[in-house]
Amino acid sequence: MRSVLKKVHDGLNTRTGFFILTLVLLWIKTYAVYVNKFSLGINDSMQRFLLLLNPLPTGLLLLGIALYFRGKKSYWIMMIVDLIASLWLFANILYYREFSDFLSMGIIKSSGSVSNNLSLSIGEILHLSDLWVFVDVIILTLLLVFKVIKIDTRPVKFRYPVGVTLLSCVLFAANLGLAEKNRPQLLTRTFDNNYIVKYLGINFYAAYNAYQTYKESATRASASSSDMDQVLKFLKKNKTTVNPEYYGKAKGKNVFVFHLESFQQFMINYKVNGKEVTPNINQFYSDQSTISFDNFYHQVGQGKTSDAETMLETSLFGLPSGSVMTSYGTNNTFQAMPAIMDQQGYTTAAFHGDVGSFWNRDNTYKSWGYQYFFSEDYYKNKSNYSIGYGLKDKLFLQQSVKYIEQLPQPFYAKLITVTNHYPYELDKQNQTIEKTTTGDSTVDGYVQTAKYLDDAFGEFISYLKKAGLYDNSMIVVYGDHYGISNNHKKAIAQLLGKKSVDSYDLAQFQKVPFMIHVNGIKGGIDHTYGGEIDVMPTLLDLLGIKNTDTIQLGNDLLAKDRNQTVAFRNGDFVSPTFTKIGSTIYNDKGEDVTNSLTAEQKAQVKAQTEYVDEELSLSDKIITGDLLRFYTPEGFKATDKTKYNYKYSEGLKQLKQAQKDKPTSVLQQNNGNSTENLYETDAPELK
Ligand code: GP9
Ligand code: MN
């Protein structure tokens, strides 16, 4: 026994021994923090393996820096690196406890606003067990100070630290490769900080985030207020005139924005074996008080849902790569829909059954001025309540009612569904229609989850009717983006009953529903060409809210003099006359006319191309240069992000107070009696 101890002690007296001990302790503790202090949502054994592995490469790299130095210096550098890594862990433990998200450089830069946002004092947030992250650093330091461990001053060969650095790089490459395999586009799309930490580790996350922030702030710093001139010129040139038949027709009404996940236009009135897939949505679509657009396209890029949200709430495009919400949502200035509605006396709230950090919603919604964000924490969840990215739609909508009924009216409420999401899996008990039979397994489940979404939508609409909300609300329903990607050409052709599909067909396949229901309004199918960028101006006009000075790249779909060229994020476009895909031009019948255009038609296509390029590049400039900080529209008060806190306990408190301050909620109008019992659902999980 003694000899074993002696061997260990001798080992620790060598620099390599001490290095390994420090590394292993840092590794174990980081993993322990991952498991005990964060909820990273481990779904499979590969994710578990990567979680265990990921502290190692960066640990080797960082502590390995010390090995390039000699003697005492080497030891102290090791301890300092260890301390910094521990402080970073510690700061994130505290931040995570309050926000269920990781600290970003953007947050640290605006740390004043963060501290304002903390609902609890540091004493309340701190748990004694958090201090464990420092124990190894302290003990190792004491062992060195009291010379229990002796400093090994022997010189080392240069190739030794280089070897350690190389090893860390190899391990990191392996880690990254496995992570990308499990979660494609992890870094290009950066959905969620939680994902980066889960797959690549908290130290990598720090470096990655710092790099992104550096890149972003460089562009931001070089932007100036004169850059807005170009934007204003473009807007002036393309301004439409409001349609008096519709302007202000929804004034003062509540607004529901109902987000149909991955829902495409071709599903409307679609049948499988003679059975309608989405009878409720179909009925809503053809209601005489619903304006339904049948040439409405999604315009998202890599940011998918987040791009759709960005366009709907700000009338600015997503980015050529990545997501506006994750990269710029925390710090940029916006003049977004919730803020505008708030300033019109509306209560504003977003509802979603996934974690709040996904797509950086928890920060972006503050920049957009949402008063409430009801995310996963606000919902009861049992093991069979969730599938894929979150709560199943029926359970999500049913549980949303207890918050909706507490919102002082008028309100602006956005509900984001999620069950109809790739890979379209649904538990047996919720399947109420047969799969399609294209043989493409990622496509064939689509109608089943779409049907489920439709059922959930139907239940929600029935509730609105019973609770009296249907008639005093403007109900906006839209599909966020394609559900079946262009990689599934064969299956798409089969679904559409065609032999094959070409690029033109695929462009048309990007149509998503966009419907606006206002009781008593003149509805019908509107054939105007438009896209998600046009939603905000359309809604503001219907609500009779002046928006002539607001920076919006879209235009009112109900205006008669609009440019109907619809940009896709990659610069392609569709329009009533020509469609451009890459360098190919199609006419309105889908025929390739690239080589047979008249001079006049060529000029028209050129003008359309320029229009599309200009609106996309101006949008990018506004976002990357944070140009809206230089421009506040008349009558608009800049959004104060520090006002908002979406923590569960805080949200409840706020709702309670709101009942007293402004007793116009459904609950108050119902003499304090909940309307939850009016909600009928056949969700099997509740039986
Ligand atoms: C998750 C959800 C999905 O919260 O909104 O986003 P998507 O994958 O569709 O972009
Ligand atoms: Mn989506």
From TrEMBL:
Cellular component terms (Gene Ontology): plasma membrane
Keyword Manganese set for record: yes
Pathway of action: Cell wall biogenesis; lipoteichoic acid biosynthesis
Record-annotated Sulfatase N-terminal domain positions: 253-545
Broad class of the protein's primary localization: membrane
Transmembrane segments: 12-29, 49-69, 76-96, 125-146, 158-178
Region (Disordered): 655-687
UniProt subcellular location: Cell membrane
Record family assignment: Belongs to the LTA synthase family.
Organism: Ligilactobacillus murinus
Amino-acid positions noted as binding substrate in the UniProt annotation, renumbered to this chain: 421
Keywords, alphabetical: Cell membrane, Manganese, Membrane, Metal-binding, Transmembrane, Transmembrane helix
CDD domains in the record: LTA_synthase
Active site per UniProt: 305
Chain positions recorded as Mn(2+) binding sites: 261, 305, 480-481
Protein name in UniProt: Glycerol phosphate lipoteichoic acid synthase
UniProt feature, compositional bias: Polar residues: 665-678
Gene3D superfamilies to which the protein is assigned, alphabetical: 3.30.1120.170, Alkaline Phosphatase, subunit A (3.40.720.10)
The UniProt record lists the keyword GTP-binding: no
Range of residues in the leader sequence: none
Xref: InterPro entries: Alkaline_phosphatase_core_sf, LtaS-like, OpgB/LTA_synthase_biosynth, Sulfatase_N
Membrane-topology annotation of the record: Multi-pass membrane protein
Annotated GO MF terms: metal ion binding
